[in-house]
Amino acid sequence: MIVNYPEVAVKELLDHVLEDYARKYPNTCKCQRCRDDTMAIALNNLPAKYVVKNQKGQIFTKVVFEQIGGKAQVVAALVSAIQKVQQNPRH
Ligand SMILES: [Zn+2]
Predict the structure, then answer these.
(1) Rounded to 5 degrees, what are φ and ψ at 16?
(2) Neighbours of 80 (CB within 10 A)
């Protein structure tokens, strides 16, 4: 089984970054469509990094972040994706 590291990182951070954004912009929509659009845009802006899962199927988030250039890069991609989606929501 293969996984794409940025996908793991984006899923892990989406809720946190979205909540943070919604505190500043209370009208932020958090419906499933907007969340999916946000994840898709963020992932298209991050380099793919496919790896094979180990036998236990564990993925360590810390390692994930190290492999893809750090947590800050993922947060930045998410914030920029949230801005795009909120300016032009498709729900
Ligand atoms: Zn929405």
Answers:
(1) -60, -50
(2) 14
Distance 85 CA to ligand 1 centre (A): 8
44: Cβ contacts below 8 Å, ≥ 6 apart:
none
pLDDT in tens, 34-85: 999 999 999 999 988 888 877 776 767 777 777 777 889 999 999 999 999 9
Whole-angstrom distance, CA of residue 36 vs CA of residue 8: 14
pLDDT in tens, 14-36: 999 999 999 999 999 999 999 99
For residue 37, the CA-to-ligand 1 centroid distance in Å is: 9
